[in-house]
Protein 1
Amino acid sequence: MRFSLLLSLIGPALGAIAPPQIPLSSQPAPAASASDFTTFQSTISPNHSIRIKRQNATLCDTPVDQYTGWLDVGHKHFFFWYFASENASPSPDSAPLALWMTGGPGGSSMIGLLLELGPCLMNKDGDGTVYNPYGWNKDTAMIFVDQPVGVGFSYSDHDDTLPDNSFSSAEDMQIFLQTFISQVFPVHLKGPFVITGESYAGHYIPTLGAQIVKQNLLYPHHPQVPLKSVAIGNGLISRPDTIFGYWETLCTTNPGVPEPVFNQTRCDIMAANMPRCMDILKTCNSHPDPALCGAAETVCVDEVTGYYEREVGIGGRNPYDVTAPCDVDEICYSDADLITKYLNLESSFRTLGVPPAIKNYSIMSPEVERAFSRTVDIQISTEPQVHYLLSNQVDVLIYQGNLDLVCNTAGAQRWASNFVWKGQAEFTSKTMQPWASVVNGTKTEVGTFKEVNIKMVEGDEKTTRFALVTVDGSGHMVPLDQPEVALDLLTRWLAGKSFD
């Protein structure tokens, strides 16, 4: 489960329901046909349509309504899985909706659904699911999308059209959401809508959010996507700041470790090499050329990040949690393999109505990963898109598991402090303060936070929220490592409650 390119670059009341196990039936599921799907043609774009079918709890053990399907746009087809909220909205057209996008690039959002925060999670045998009492669909409907095309159950009719940057699917995703909200599930017409995800979603989320805002402003009489906020978990926003954060993560006890991961000799070498790495990455961001940025990446891997990453693998180091072992090569989390096993069952394909074009499901797409690695996408920062969101009164939450290395807390704190915007002065003047959550029935200090609420538009009293929240005892995947805390974090954010 390589959530980022980092490793590849080294080498050439329902909450009280008991969680019963729902194993996959031994009886073959009936084959899905075109008649099983309802198709919605976009009223905005003749090239976009959505085919959707209702699911029962056979594949995902949850009491709520659920639907799967594909967004079809020409030769491209994006897979989605939608779940209603456990707590229904009292309004017929203002039910909350959250979109989840796993990173990578090339990671399937079924990782988030079945391993981390979905209404159901994989059972220990990989042949069924169990109800997740900490699923994120308590107070909001959830939709999980495999994107960009070529990832998971999303596919293209043409093998030579794989995307290679974070902007490539933003247009299709915006029209998909516009059609989905206005025509398929108008209960979400007035929102609020939030985009969330982790890892490389630090690129996906700001670019999609910016595209939504831009289209809403350009076409005010078209159906609007009611984007209220984004919540980015351990996201890759700024590659230089993330690399700079390697030293603090590995050479201090700041992540919450009893002693530094690296010895002084390694730390001194990394520190000595850091200025050269930062200089060449700065040049890359100023002149984003694939050859130049590729050379910058090579320098930084060879001289800084590679000291840890070259030791990653089964039985070795884990880049997603510096305190945990790596159970399997590339993925490190063996439970992720259960997802692949489960979704590749013939009965899973039949129940979902997977088309013949898809021969095999994979949680990661090496082809998409390689396509991105040949461009400058990983090295460029998405801070301009974050700025655009804030300027247009979209709230931004950055949440961080402190034990992560690949998208570390030190790097997030660095870019968030250096980020130039109207709220920078107030944000940087504040210190991180402890926040508490109820864990196993006891109120416990679980991390730190700071946030500001800034009036972004002249003459408008509405404030826009920017928050940085950390979670102790968690690595790259906060909902996996600290599920109770993660649900509380999301619930507070959606409700507009502070973390103090």
Protein 2
Amino acid sequence: MTDVELLVYADRIGGTFPALTALLDGPLQAFGSVHVLPFYVPFDGADAGFDPVDHTAVDPRLGGWPEVRDLAGSRGLTADLVVNHVSASSVEFTDWLARGAESPWDGMFLTYGTVFPHGATEAELTAFYRPRPGLPFTGYRGADGSRHLVWTTFLPSQIDLDVAHPVAIAYLRRVLRVLAAGGVTTVRLDAVGYAVKTPGTDSFMTPETLAFVEVIGDLARTENLAVLVEVHGHYTEQLAIAPLVDWVYDFALAPLLLHSLGTGTVDRLADWFEIRPANAVTVLDTHDGIGVIDAGPAGGRPGLLSEVEMAEVFARAAEATHGHSSVASVVPEWATLPHQINATFFSTLGGDVVAYLVARAVQHFLPGRPQTYYVGLLGGLDDRELFAETGNGRDVNRHRYSAAEAEEALASEVTRAQLGLVRLRSAHPAFDGQFTWSAYGRDVLELRWVNAARSARAVLTVCTARGATSFRIQLADADGSEVLDTVESLAAWRPGA
């Protein structure tokens, strides 16, 4: 059976590792795996944990490594390996600033001079792909007065590693060993597409990047860790990297579903189903928002969606969120559209429960591992107050749930129906069989799983017609057959019931 995965911040639902474990052992027990977003010291840094000061320590406000191992228990546990950078407050970086060449971390950090020892032209500097406005450098001064132009792809406080240097590789190897000892079973290579800087290219998902992925993948497998790669980019990049690792993301699915539900068509989804990798973690929304770039054109290569169709997806999201997604989403340097929609998936559909469950049903029926983000599971709408407080557009989809809020959300129809899908994908014997699919006319998709050995069958039929969106799930096994075509029937489904 497939282990459906929950994507969560330990501090934003539950609050601690023991509290999160209680949820996963209780109302969320249908999830066979959990991806806990960065829980290192500190989990609440400038980039919500993706700027570790100490990548090998659990933030004590959440618990410790024994509590992490308790959470892992008999379920899968995914954790992030932040391969591109560390915090400017890390021991490694501060020691290097203090001691320079005498520091054991000398060589670990990427500087302008490392990449351009003989200087760079304007064209070379502006060629680099960066998901933020401006150039990727920040000035730091050493204790001896030396000045360093340090590479900072994301934030000025996130110091890029020189992943070609043995000291950086030794650092990453040490982190992998700690994660494996802590009960982690899969590591997600965060921001790996940006990790290798190659002059003369945009330095995003180049052949040199793929070679590095193989290196770090081998290190992970030495620790018996599966490897999941996070890359937001042209869909061909997912296809290129899929054979090299255990898991990639199907980020293209979300914008394609938004396109289908917005236009009442399924042809673009069908195009993707023909070629998508089977070893994909399927997502609709994540802590980084809703990826749209993943379905669009790039570098002269056509996309699954055109530039115009991408713009229309953003426009419909803006309409559904009353303009807020346009305010919260960021346009990178040299780009004309944001990479991602900063909104919850439920908000981009205007809170339409049936349309939302159509999207979730397609996600859960595709081959691979479905992953549900905690805000999406709880039917969350945009957290505009948190965005107003922090100014970080991604925070609209990073709500901090109190125990009372979580309890109320778990009782809602949209959450109960999603949990029905999780139970279905996790327990029905049809999903151990063969997958096929068909498109009918302009607006109907049928996704089928058949397990002949168990006389089991699961068929999802969705219609994306505007004003007539619907889903119908037909189930059969040795014990009989049933149809799930309402929110209530989906919420009530349990194996053997």
Protein 3
Amino acid sequence: MASPDCPRRCSSRTPALLLLSAIICFQQLVKGLSLSTEEEDAVKRFQEYLKFDTVHPSPDYYPVTEFLSEQGKQLGLDTKVVEYVQGKPVVVFTWQGTEPSLPSILLNSHTDVVPVEHAYWKHPPFAAKMDEGGNIYARGSQDMKCVGMQYLEAIRNLMSAGFKPQRSIHVSFVPDEEIAGGDGAKLFYESSDFKELNVAFVLDEGVASQDGNYKVFYAERSVWWFYITAAGHPAHGSRLLDGMALEHLRFSLNAIADFRKSEFDKVKSGEKAEGEIISINNVYLKAGTPSPTGFVMNIQPSHAEAGFDMRVPPVADVDALQKRLDEEWAPASKNLTYRFVQKDKVTDNFGKPAITAVDDSNPWWIMFKEAIAKAGGTLAKPEILMGSTDARYAREQGIPALGFSPMTNTPILLHEHNEFLNAKEYLMGIKVYEQILRTCTGPKDESGEPSNSKAGSGVLSETIHTEL
């Protein structure tokens, strides 16, 4: 627990005293959490990363890139910074394996965060304030700056323990995930830089679990963003006429609302998980004739528009869904048209559903499960992620990718006010990644346990070497 007079001392206005008070307050807080010196340092680095304001719509990526590059330098990692779009750097670290010709693994995370409404936060969203319970409040604490730093801390600890990976480990920090990743991960995965990494398995972000089981995601829903425009004749606001723009738009809104209810009912009844259904939400409405004080109240507008966020699972019948949009939601007979803002495919580049196998046919899944068990964790039933992440760009290439953020007993707060992650949970996640890296990149001895010797590499490693 923090000292009762800690807040008073931290409020000193003298710069030197402010720094000293901040150090004292931090030490008192971490003392209450019973952290070792190494754990304290790990938490401080996490807080430092969180303080970089990389919020949309105008994130400045250069300061955080300098910070990350310095972290890689301290660890002795090979570092590469590339800009496929000016002002949007991608940072790639490599821990060279003892057998670099083997297929590698990639740990991906993004550096950008979504906007905040400062008035609704109990602590400034870029101060990375840790309260007396060890909760660290910051935008990005769950989504997903925690994961990026956990990757590096796991590598730091493994290096200190003398571990040497057999296959190479790459760690990427990409921009713009929160705005679909078109100038970030998409271009990275399509680049020759990525091809040279020889990646066979990718880990990316998941979400927190509110119970004691870790959530893991083997696929995600594709984004279909579109708007529907209704046309009609303008008329006096007092007249009752058929064929008006808002009347046509109401037809569309009612049809979509019925479909939304039918899909939502499947979740409420337990028939399907939320990631398995098609979700659609009306995210904006636009109509009316503007005036200096608002809208002209006695004119029925000639056009009205509604925007929609629809998420489509990889198992959906997209042809039937497209037909529904054409014939039921935006039929031309009702003077309705539509235009897509973004329409992602649900298949990979080979025409198969963009899904990573979570059964014994996938040796990476076998090792991932093994690692979680060795770390003392348990996995919930694998799911399709409700939203979308940069992992889709790996799956599009047929590369196995899992979405995983090691947070248990934690409220899901991504994109919400007062986003936080507890320091103890953050530190536990580092240990989980240590075990994942040991299991997925270290050779096996005769007992199947990870070893740093090349002898007796085990059946599972031999299978991976041959098949991947």
